[in-house]
Structure formats: C-alpha cells, structure tokens
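does this look right to u?? 3,4-dihydroxyphenylalanine version
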Amino acid sequence: MLEEVRQLASVAVEEIEAARDDKALEALRVHHLGRKSRLRQIARQIGQRPAAQRPALGQATACAQKAIQQALDDKALALRQVAEAAALDVTLPGRRPLLGCAHPLSQLTDELIGIFQGMGFDVADGPEVEDEYHNFDALNTPADHPARDLHDTFYLEGGGLLRTHTSTVQVRVMEQTPPPVRIISLGRCYRRETVDATHHFAFHQIEGLYVDHGVSFADLKGTIEAMGRQLMGEETQVRFRPHFFPFTEPSVEYDFTCICKGQRTNCSICKGTGWIEIAGAGMVDPAVFTAVGYDPDEYTGFAFGMGLERIAMIRHGIDDVRRFLENDLRFIRQF
Ligand code: DAH
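got this back:
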C-alpha cells in the first residue's frame, strides 16, 4: 500500500503538470484530492491497518497530499502568467511618460547663478527660519529702528522669525569666512503681505556681496550692469537713484531700461517712464562689518538684493504673482 501511495502521487503530479487549462486542473484536483479520491480512501483505512504499519502509511499519505497540492498551486500560477502574457496587446498606443520642467523661478535662479559664477561669485545658502539678530540687528537695524516697521515680519512662537530678506546670508557668510568674500545667495523670503496680483507673503530674492581691499562703487555699478545686460538684453541700461537701507552707505535703488525701450507711453510694465525699478544696493555699512568682526578701515564691499518674481513676470509677461506658488501645471509647463 505504501508503494501505491507513492505511485498515486507521482502520477498525479505528472498529470497536473500536463494540464492545459484551469478547468482540467480543477478536474484533476477533484480526482486526486477530492473526497472520493483513492488517496483519501487509503487515508480513511489507515486506522484498520496493523499498528506497526500506521505511522509510515500516515506519513506517506500526508506527503503525497502535500506534493499534489503543491503541484496544483504551481500549475495554477503558471497558467495565470501565461494568460496575462497573452492579454498584452502590443498594438495598443503607448502611454507618454510625464516629463517635468523647471519652474520659471528655478530657471531664473539657475540663470543668475550662471551669470554670477561667470564673474567669480560663489553660491551661499542660509536658513529661512532666522533670528532677529541675523535678520535685523547685525544688519544695522536695531529694535527701535523705523526700518523694521517696513518689514512686516512673521514672528514665530518661541522666538525666531521667517527671514524678510536674503541679506541675512551676508551676515552668516561673513561670520564664517574671513575676507575676501564674493557670494550670491538665492532663496525664499516671507513678509506679512496681503496677497494680491503684485504681493505675496512668500517671495524670492537674490543677494550679492563682494568684500575685499579697495572694492568701490564703480565695481558695484559694473557688476549690476553686467547682470542687467545678460538678464534683459545687451542694450539694457542701468540707472542708480539715491535711497536708504540701514545696512549700506551710500545706498541706491537701481532701475533697468524697460523692454519697451521707452517707446510705448501705455506700457504696462514701466507705465511709459522707460525704466523699471529693480532692486536695492549699496556699499556695505561699516557697522555691519563691525558686527561680523571685519575691520571697516581695511575692507570695503558692496551688496545688492533683488526680487526674482518681478524679473520673471517682466520676462514672461506674467500678470499675477500668485501664479508662481499655485502649482498649476498648466501655468508651469508654458516656460
Ligand atoms: N534687503 C533689501 C530688501 O529686501 C534689499 C537690499 C538692499 C539688499 C540693499 C542689499 C542692499 O544687499 O545692499 O528690501
């Protein structure tokens, strides 16, 4: 009887492996493992066999059942894989993978990095969550200074704030690095603005800082002009107007000639003036040098800060600053 059990198992496995479809497989399952199968019959009779034979017989039938079940499972899987492969229709049109593209502000960021690396500037980074010291005090803007009121600041619970400008990175770099330094830094800034088409509570700036022996206002002008021409076109001219910033002395605001070249009296960008206000700059105030441990009698430097959104809006004809942060792919894909 032992021999018969082994025989049953090997025949069953062979038949199962040869099965052509699910239906044949199910019939084989019933035939070999069903209640009326020979194997079950033998299993039921074990109790009536002499005691000495029972263990070996019990083991053999269990083993045979396991082998048959395994063969059934394997075959079911193999049949399913064949069916799935057959269902693949290679004549169906392909699905185009979604290709990403750089956000217009990222494109501008990359371009500015390229322009300034070409002039020997390194790229520095700084935190968006700042402290009052790096955002204001070290930039010659003490707590009672009226300039602080111009920055509607997000103050954080438990101290700290969201940086209102990238000028913080000037301080952080100078604290870490002895002169000379020549860096730009780009990133996000925050102010408590009411959001509309031209204001957002989150925006982007580029900051530049160049400190060395004998850096002059002429270096500042030349650098800003070189940037203007590469950014807005070779014919771009730059105009500097006196202004005030606590951390530069003297301070200026600078304007680029408009892309309408002053030809359109109803130009929506320059309002017919021919000039677009771009950003602020100046010679680093000696008080800032003192705060970071530089000797103001030995070194001079210039700094500038510029918003990115306005530049991108002018270049691409974008009329609403909110678009930049809405994550609408239909907007982003245009650039
Ligand atoms: N941090 C100034 C702002 O956000 C911009 C600025 C002006 C930066 C003059 C400078 C600078 O580095 O020299 O309004």
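The longest helix spans residues 54-87. idk if thats expected tbh
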